[in-house]
Structure formats: structure tokens, C-alpha cells
Amino acid sequence: MDPLSDPLRRTTLDGPATFEPEEKLVIALDFGTTYSGIAFCFPNQQDTKVASIMDWPGGESAPKVHTLIAYDKKQNNKFSWGASVNRMTDSIIGIKLLLDPTQERPLYLPTGNLQRDIKKLPKKPVEVAADFIRSIYQHALSEITKQVPKGYMSLCQQKFVLSGKSMFPPSLDCRDIF
User: What is the pTM of this model?
Assistant: First the structure.
């Protein structure tokens, strides 16, 4: 087989030879205090276009979804997130801010004793954030595979980009989230 037509090309780093797929998928999460959104693209394609996830669990169709999560009162491994959360129930808002309680809360979020609120959480703040991020990422993959054949998706090297203003405190090890 001609090495140039091989879907996996051989690259050499400072260690043993590795294979890197030529096809790439970049998934970007804008993790916001109030809303979060996902955009994606296949940067190696000739006419690369960035697309946004527009359909969310709960039936909402918008470029972003509420950054909310609500845990089942009996089983904290079951939860709903985003548009599928009934906002009249005990939902967790300001998930990102839970990671750094020293951040100033925006005026539009309810005030209260943040340390007390954190103690009431069914999980540690980093686990709450990880549940939300994991769910929105898995949903993004599901939505992308509706537009792109699964066979092509399996060829793609996936890169995940996480962004957000006033993101994570220096004391947080982000490996705990992913």
C-alpha cells in the first residue's frame, strides 16, 4: 500500500513511531455559568465549516443550553441536565462557580451561603461539573453521528477544546473532570 494513501500515517516523536489519523474532529465546549454550547468541525476537509449543536435533550432547539443539572434524590448517579431539567425543582445552577467558591457570583444568580450550598450537593463540585461536561460531550457525539457516518467518525482523531471565561482555579486539577 502506498504510504500516502494510508489513512493512518506514520509519525515519529521523541519515542517509538506512532500512527496518527489524517481525519480529525474538533469538538469545542463553551462551558458557561448560565449557558453552555458545543461547536464542531472537521478541520482537514477542504471546505471546513464550524457547526453548532442545536438540538438538546428536553426538546430545546438553540445554539446553547442551560448549564443546569438535577440529581435523582434516591440515586445520585441518575440525573438530568440542560433543557431536560425542570427549573422549578432543586436544580444545581452555576456549576462552574462551584469549582471556585471565591469567584464573585453574577447578580442574576441567587445569593446564599455558597459553602453551605456546596455541603448540600450530592457529590463533590468537581464531580458535578464532570457529570455535566461528560453528558454534553456524549450528547454532542450522538448529534454529530446523525450527520456523519459512524465509519468516518471511527477514523477521526478527536480533539476536545474546553473554554469558558474565569474558568478553573489554579488549585483545581482538571484531570479530575476528564
Answer: 0.78
**Whether the Cβ atoms of residue 11 and residue 18 lie closer than 8 Å to each other:** yes
Cell of 112: 446564599
Q: What is the mean pLDDT of each run of 10 residues along the chain (178 residues)?
A: 45 54 89 93 89 93 94 91 85 85 74 74 92 95 92 90 66 52
The one-letter code for the residue type at 66 is: H
Sign of the C-alpha dihedral computed for residues 58, 60, 63 and 65 taken in this order: negative
Residue 7's pLDDT is what?
A: 46
Q: Find the DSSP H helices in 43-124.
A: 95-98, 114-120
* Contact call for residues 95 and 69 (beta carbons, < 8 A): yes
Q: What is the pLDDT of residue 59?
A: 85
Q: How far apart are CA 129 and CA 174, in angstroms?
A: 10
* Cell numbers placing 162: 474546553
Dist CA 103 CA 95 (whole Å): 12
In the three-class reduction of DSSP (H, G, I as helix; E, B as strand; rest coil), residue 83 is classed as helix
